[in-house]
Amino acid sequence: MAERPRFIDDIAGVAGGAISALAGLREETEAAIRARVDETIRRLELVRREELDAVAELAARARAGQEAAEARMAELERRLARLEGVAGQSGPAGTGSAAPHT
Hints:
The chain is mainly α.
């Protein structure tokens, strides 16, 4: 069995180094592209999906709170109208149902 020539070992070493260099170049290129895209997003004042979802959830909670407050206010207004109706039937405040003195 013949030994492999040293030339083949050298080529294999160079090929391995080239592959490693290309992998590093790929990572650097991806990082540069990612940074450029992030900068463009910031410059265009675009928002990420996560931020949009968070704001949408916040708006939904605010809307639900507003609807609950409106329902509570409507109930309080009904109670007030009922109380004013009862007070109006008994005459002016402080006089009861008795006739005014002359």
